[in-house]
Specification:
With about 850 residues, the chain is of the alpha/beta class. It is built from 30 helices and 26 strands.
Length: about 850
């Protein structure tokens, strides 16, 4: 109809077919419908124009094709095929003596309907493939030139020819920036030590990965391909390169199956050497053990009162500090509307609790998390990640060294309310809300970021969550499911909902203080925090040289069942769980010295718990069982409450002191205290040595009805360690070094390095043990930005960003290759090593071999004399 509408006075002389349509998908997901969506307007419509204009006297028949049909374009199989058809149609017309040219367009700089969905990363990928953006004027010039060409098919594009390769069929793959020998790779690798094999293949992967990404620097072995910027298309491009390099077709999902260059290199090593090809690593077979105790080797704590470590939590409870404060001002809570002393509907009659300072603060870059994703993450996930890192370092373990290990993560957590408000924070959080707010993801995120491959469980049994997590972690260690286990819990209240809900039930103390087992008890008080213990089997801890802080002698978990109300505590069930834990530990009740109680300060819950303790622990004792509750210091920290008690008792064992429980005016009269030998810790008292290990029980009872009890024991001295004569359980201090120990600091940025120096200044002012600090710093994780200081003046200079004779700073570049030359007496004057190389053939030959293994030019060490 369009052609028939053209008047005879102005006959048709040219046709330009400029149809453009996309329906991108990798070829495996194409359907006939998706193929037709592109084929019909591109190919079939062009053929219709060809047939309908065959009898007309045309001077030009121009088809708008695409370079995708010439060079190929991953993810555009239907588009490339349709454009290749246009190229064929132009050639066919020329063979028929008809005008015809197909212009295979490249990438236009101006956004159009076809390129409007392209991301910046897509544009960068095309540029690396050799397709540069064209201005409109430049493209129109190419159109004019294409009309005059003698060729039926012309690529009209901005091209970077050096990136197109030199094969007969041009491929949009950038060539590697440095040559990698692949001929006879299996034979070459087979004759080398394993370490050298891994180095060669890691260099191969790094080289091609850099080329695909258009980078000129080397890529580290432990960086995830996702974090480097790989997507499905660049992953396929890397697969293609490595398939050619090793001479074997590799999986298109390779970068997802082996997510770091180091792991991919190890897989390629198996492929090249002809070993069994696996899509997953072999699964270690766990061997259940019953006679190898589970021990605590690391502690991490974040609690109210500025607590940032287990030692700071101990300082707080030992000092009798009340860490309860008013509602935080940095969470957007409308305190004027929320607080009502009368406790009307939708309000709280208390405005106090135990809160974390700066709970929203998070160093996302440290963990390789984007600002958008961090915004969508529940603060509980953020606080937990930081506490996890600190727990590993407390144990003297570099967290990055555990990648690929059978380390388990058992996290107590419950909903914080953040999920309901995240949509209002920013639309930038789109795409991350599901994983950012799901409690189930919390443990998995820890495993993902650190590369831990043991079990990962998020546990929600309300207030008993963290003790249940410790119980499950100990079982997993005994069964051989994991070799190391993080266990504990975290709670951060994103909204005041818990205060409002419990105010309706009249379950809160108006002053925000927990008065555990006291006559003045008038309700619980909400708090928040994070606590973790790092658990290991004793034999592994001794073999790995880890400090043993306590033994998890026994634990048990049970349920109230059909109690007097869903949320009402049940005394007989609490008594049973304590007896189960004692039986699991192989102990009599009289062999436990102290119980860190659930002790929430409620008028119903405390008497029920006290009666259960009297029945389970209080009978037939000579020495009293001492009873306390950390909640009196920091409030009820919910999913992090039980582990707070564990950390408190571990530290109490080490210090030989039982700290006081606050706010006890007198023992509650609702309990028959005379029915058993139990005493409240209303003041601090020593924890004496009695000829047997110190032992403590810790209780946590969830509003869910799930009860947990854990029994800790002080560790026996390591036979391999020298101990102090005054305290057989305490390792003797190492002799002081003859020279001062330098302090080694590292961070991920210069700003973070200076900030660390400032924190270290404050810490050193309180603890002047310079050699102890130096030894501890030397065991920490090493990051790229590093400094070595030899004195307080040098540390102060680092904190200010200044130079100092006692300060050395630098940025480490991990190329994975190091050489050490022990020159003996050969360094008295410049050029001495070069002379040695020239005069002594043995030295020269060995140096040549070392340089060859490292891929260095022979004699490179002497280029500068």
């Amino acid at each position: 109809a369009v052609l028939d509408s053209i008047p005879a006075a102005h006959p048709l002389t040219a046709v330009v077919h400029a149809a453009g349509v996309l329906d991108d998908a990798v070829v495996e997901s194409l359907t006939p419908e998706r193929l037709a969506a592109v084929w019909e307007p591109k190919a079939r419509a062009a053929w219709h124009l060809h047939e309908l204009t065959r009898g007309r006297d045309l001077t030009a028949f121009v088809l708008f094709s695409s370079a995708a049909g010439t060079l190929g374009s991953p993810g555009q199989a239907n588009y490339a095929a349709a454009n290749a058809y246009l190229d064929g149609l132009a050639a066919y017309r020329r063979a028929q003596g008809l005008p015809g040219v197909s212009l295979a367009w490249g990438r236009w700089a101006e956004t159009s309907g076809l390129t409007g969905q392209m991301s910046e990363a897509d544009g960068e990928r095309l540029a690396r493939a050799g397709l540069l953006p064209m201005t409109t004027d430049y493209g129109l010039g190419l159109f004019d030139g294409g009309l005059d060409t003698a060729e039926p098919v012309v690529v009209a594009a901005g091209l970077k020819v050096s990136a197109l390769g030199d094969r007969p069929v041009l491929r949009a793959l950038a060539r590697a920036r440095k040559p990698v020998r692949t001929t006879g790779l299996a034979g070459e690798l087979g004759s080398l030590p394993e370490a050298r094999q891994r180095e060669i293949l890691l260099d191969l992967v790094s080289t091609h990965a850099s080329a695909v990404l258009g980078r000129s620097d080397e890529i580290g072995g432990d960086l995830a391909f996702k974090d480097l910027g790989f997507d499905s298309l660049t992953g396929v491009e890397l697969r293609n390169r490595l398939s050619t390099a090793v001479g074997t077709r590799l999986s298109a999902t390779m970068v997802f199956d082996y997510p770091t260059p180091a792991r991919l290199a190890e897989y390629l090593r198996e492929v090249v050497l002809g070993k069994e090809r696996r899509t997953v690593a072999p699964v270690p077979v766990g061997v259940p053990v019953s006679d190898d105790p589970v021990v605590v080797v690391g502690l991490g704590a974040r609690y109210p009162g500025g607590v940032g470590s287990a030692q700071e939590l101990w300082d707080l409870v030992a000092g009798g500090v009340d860490a309860v404060g008013e509602f935080p001002s940095d969470r957007g809570w409308d305190v004027g509307r929320i607080y009502d002393p009368a406790g009307g509907p939708g309000t709280s009659y208390t405005r106090s609790g135990g809160f974390l300072g700066n709970a929203g603060g998070f160093d996302a870059a440290f963990f390789g998390i984007s600002p958008r994703e961090a915004l969508a993450m529940d603060p509980q996930q953020r606080v937990l990640l930081e506490t996890v890192w600190e727990t590993f370092e407390d144990a003297g373990i570099d967290p990055t060294s555990l990648r690929g290990s059978q380390t388990g993560v058992f996290t107590g957590i419950w909903a914080s309310g953040y999920a309901g408000g995240v949509d209002q924070i920013s639309r930038d959080a789109d795409g991350y809300v599901a994983t950012g707010t799901a409690t189930s993801v919390t443990s998995g995120r820890v495993s993902y970021l650190l590369g831990l491959e043991g079990p990962a469980l998020s546990v929600d049994t309300a207030c008993s969550s963290s003790l249940v997590a410790i119980h499950l972690a100990a079982q997993a260690l005994r069964s051989g499911e994991c070799s190391l286990a993080l266990a504990g819990g975290v709670t951060v209240m994103a909204t005041p909902a818990a205060f409002i809900d419990f105010s309706r039930q009249r379950g809160l103390a108006a002053d925000g203080r927990v008065k555990a087992f006291a006559e003045a008890a008038d309700g619980t008080a909400w708090g928040e925090g994070a606590g973790l213990v790092l658990l290991e089997r004793l034999s592994d801890a001794r073999r790995n040289g880890h400090r043993v802080l306590a033994v998890v002698r026994g634990s048990a978990v049970n349920q109230d069942g059909a109690s007097n109300g869903l949320t009402a505590p049940n005394g007989p069930s609490q008594e049973r769980v304590i007896r189960q834990a004692l039986a699991n530990a192989g102990l009599e009740a009289s062999e436990v010295d102290v119980v860190e109680a659930h002790g929430t300060g409620t008028t119903l819950g405390d008497p029920i718990e006290a009666q259960a303790l009297l029945a389970a622990y209080g009978r037939d004792r000579v020495e009293p069982l001492w009873l306390g509750s950390v909640k009196s210091n920091i409030g009820h920290t919910q999913a992090a409450a039980g582990v707070a008690g564990v950390i408190k008792m571990v530290m109490a064992m080490r210090h030989g002191q039982l700290p006081p429980t606050l706010h006890v005016d007198a023992p509650t009269s609702h309990v028959d205290w005379e029915s058993g030998n139990i005493r409240l810790l209303t003041e601090a008292r020593p924890w004496p040595e009695t000829g047997r290990p110190r032992r403590a029980g810790i209780s946590a009872f969830g509003i869910s009805g799930t009860n947990a009890h854990v029994i800790l024991e002080a560790p026996a001295p390591d036979p391999a360690e020298k101990t102090s004569p005054e305290s057989p359980a305490t390792p003797a201090p190492a002799p002081a070094p003859a020279v001062p120990v330098p302090w080694l600091l590292s961070a991920k940025s210069e700003q973070a390095l200076r900030a660390q120096a400032r924190r270290l200044q404050a810490y050193a002012a309180k603890d002047p043990d310079a050699d102890g600090i130096g030894a501890a710093l030397a065991a920490r994780t090493r990051f790229a930005h590093r400094a070595m200081v030899t004195g307080p003046e040098a540390l102060a200079a680092l904190a200010r960003g200044e130079v100092h004779p006692g300060l050395v700073t630098g940025e480490a570049r991990d190329s994975g290759r190091s050489a050490f030359v022990f020159s003996g007496q050969g360094g008295q004057w410049a050029g001495m090593g070069r002379g040695l190389y020239r005069v002594f053939p043995v030295f020269a030959r060995v140096l040549d071999e070392v340089c060859g293994l490292l891929g260095l030019p022979v004699g490179v060490l002497f280029e500068d004399g």
